[in-house]
Amino acid sequence: MVTTACAAAPARFAVHLRPETVTAAAHNDTSTPFNLSSLPALIEHEYDGRDFRIGHVVAEELASTRSHISYRSGDLEISGQLSVPHRRGKHPLVVLAHGYEKPATYRSGVALSREAAYLVGLGYVVLLPDYRNHAGSERDSAEPVARPLGYTEDLVNAVLAIRRARLPYVDVSRVGLVGRSMGGGVALNAVEARPDLFDALVLYSPVSSSAADNYRRWVAGRGELDERVRAAYGSPGDNPSFWGEASARGYLGRVAAPVQVHHGVADPVCPVSWSRATVAALRRAGQSVEYFEYAGEDHRFDESWRAMARRVAGFLDDHV
Fold this sequence. Notes:
Layout: E1 2-4, H1 39-44, E2 50-60, E3 64-73, E4 76-85, E5 91-97, H2 113-121, E6 125-129, H3 150-165, E7 170-180, H4 182-193, E8 200-204, H5 211-218, H6 224-233, H7 240-245, E9 259-264, H8 272-284, E10 289-294, H9 305-319
Parallel strand pairs: 5-6, 5-7, 7-8, 8-9, 9-10
Antiparallel strand pairs: 1-10, 2-3, 3-4, 4-6
Helix pairs in contact: 3-4
């Protein structure tokens, strides 16, 4: 390994699942982890997260309760899950941004379940939004848009919605954000879009902070998908201005929270070189960042997961 640097049970209500329609927009192809967002659009957008509702209990554990939730994000209703520890008082919030899962088989609460269980056991309230197009969330339009917001809009609106809900057991003045894989890109976009909302950011096996890297990994040469993306936005070589604005790397100076990054050296999905480049760019931007590499670990940690989880917990305890 190489190192650098209680609440009462919520009220019940019926959850109505939408049809499992796969969205194949130029900016949001749900058959791949490719998710394109415009950082200027995200920064300028007026977020309206609202109507946070707690639904039926999914699991009643010895130390926590996990429930279905829903909230509004723009024109869409988004589903998710909320885990609440059985402890008195208000607890800091950790939001989990999950990685890519096929929407047709994705189940709410399954992605990042290890991390959710670990963090709620430490006394955090844990919110896991499903994003649009997943589980009980409404589906996004397949029409290409000039300034896409994507899953990042849903993540920011999740925090605003739970803040407005004024739940007696959540301290919404203390918010940590953990993003894995595709969700790492979503999370990094979110802290750039609304740096005032988050006190700490953890990236775990994240996608690249360069949109061009992600294009080459999941879009280039993929027939119809590549044609749709290039027709809407051009390629990174043809339209570097747009692809620069779609890259979190160009906006790292807006990150106000300390950052911790974890990546397996043997990751076959998101190369470790991507995190090395992101961390280097964060440091050039003057940001506070801790970086950990794990020899032999691939995209979803196995033997090193507990060591990583302890580091994440310590980092969140220090900053949230």
